[in-house]
Design goal:
Blueprint: E1 2-6, H1 13-25, E2 30-33, H2 44-54, E3 57-58, H3 62-67, H4 78-90, H5 93-100, E4 105-108, E5 111-114, H6 129-138, E6 143-145, E7 153-157, E8 164-167, E9 173-175, E10 180-184, E11 198-204, E12 209-215, H7 219-229, H8 233-237
Parallel strand pairs: 1-2, 2-3, 5-6, 6-10
Antiparallel strand pairs: 1-11, 4-5, 7-8, 7-10, 9-12, 11-12
Helix pairs in contact: 2-5
Length: about 240
């Protein structure tokens, strides 16, 4: 099955629409979302509706849980906390209903799914080899998909081999047939790897291969929405530099 894996939408409608168009053009049969439907952007309801309509599975991210009151905003940066409060005040009942039915981890077609990591499905940012090694010890399946860090990357280890990993640029392909894998598709709505284009992953569950993709979108539109909503300006400005 051809699957599009997305994560960290953060209520960025312009980016999500561009990615959904790209996944359809690529022939994706299902879309799996690894969480944070809402967060830093100004279009939570429209993004939640598209996730409801288009995703076969969706996880809860830490921002989703915070909007529901299940996490304290004191655990967030000042800008992130402001976005949580704004979303609580502006999200519709349909959005809150969707978020309320989500969990931060799951499994589909023999692939483990976590918003953050196999060790901590809500909070751990997996960015180092040491973290990835420990996470692979904890994941129940050879392949695990994670989000949360907003950086497209992968880690892998085979029997008797040292763990290796790397950030993954547009078009990078990995073969998942051997060993253990921890793969992050990157962020749709707020990339942090220096590439402002929206990130997603094309996964073939039969051939066990995956290709990383970057999709251009109307950043001016997304930034203008954030500014008009009165959210912190830094949340708009960072979209242009992918940081």
């Amino acid at each position: 099955m051809r699957v599009a894996v997305i994560a960290d939408i953060h209520a960025n409608l312009a980016a999500l629409e561009a990615v959904l168009e790209a996944t359809e053009a690529a022939g994706a049969e299902e879309i799996w979302c690894l969480g944070d439907v809402v967060g830093y952007g100004a279009d939570p309801d429209a993004c939640a509706e598209r996730v409801r309509e288009g995703c076969a599975i969706c996880l809860a991210g830490n921002h989703d849980l915070a909007v529901l009151g299940r996490l304290q905003v004191t655990d967030f940066s000042e800008a992130a906390a402001a976005a949580v409060e704004w979303t609580r005040e502006n999200a519709g009942e349909g959005t809150l209903e969707l978020l309320g039915g989500l969990e931060p981890e799951g499994e589909r077609d023999g692939v483990s799914l976590f918003h953050a990591s196999p060790r901590d499905a809500v909070w751990e940012y997996v960015l180092s080899a040491e973290q990835a090694d420990a996470c692979m010890d904890a994941q129940p399946n050879p392949v695990a998909l994670i989000g949360h860090s907003h950086i497209a990357l992968f880690f892998t280890r085979g029997p008797g081999e040292e763990l290796r990993g790397a950030q993954a640029g547009d078009g990078a392909q990995v073969e998942l047939g051997d060993g253990e894998w921890l793969v992050n598709p990157g962020s749709v709505g707020q990339p942090r790897d220096g590439d402002p284009r929206a990130a997603w992953l094309a996964l073939d569950t039969e051939s066990r291969s995956a290709r990383f993709h970057r999709t251009p979108y109307d950043i001016e539109r997304a930034a203008a929405s954030i500014t008009a909503a009165g959210l912190p300006q830094q949340l708009a400005d960072r979209l242009f530099i992918g940081q």
